[in-house]
Amino acid sequence: MQQNATNSEKELSERQELTIPHLVSAKSVSETAHLLGLNRSTIYRWMDDPVFRAEYDRQRDAVANFARAGMRTLLLKALTVQAERFDSDDPKERVRVAREVFDYDTKTAQYRENQHLLNRLHRLLDIEEETQDEGTFNDQIDRYLAS
Description:
The protein is an all-alpha fold and 147 residues long. The chain is built from 6 helices and no strands. Helix 1 (14-25) runs parallel beside helix 4 (50-86). The N and C termini lie far apart (55 Å).
């Protein structure tokens, strides 16, 4: 690894490259340090390095995306099972599945509404940064919330 290189030219050491997958999959930095015979402070120091951190973030995001794809597959299977329960000969079973679907929809609707409100707040903060006049900002908030 070059000492005087810029971040774009700097490369990770072989030890750093081997550490990242363990760090992504481990429960903690301590676990990674123990498994690889490193000191925790070394890993924390590496995490402050922008090149190391960028590669760690990239690998962590790749693992998270893979997990989400797997969860979507399982969700499709779960929906198939729920749909089969709707065809049950037992009316109580059909009512139970209907209630479960309704409850799920209610919970996700609340999440979507919260996400919508959060997005609106972010946009309002963007408006505040663009607007210096407090009266104008308050007027814009009032108009935005009324929409």
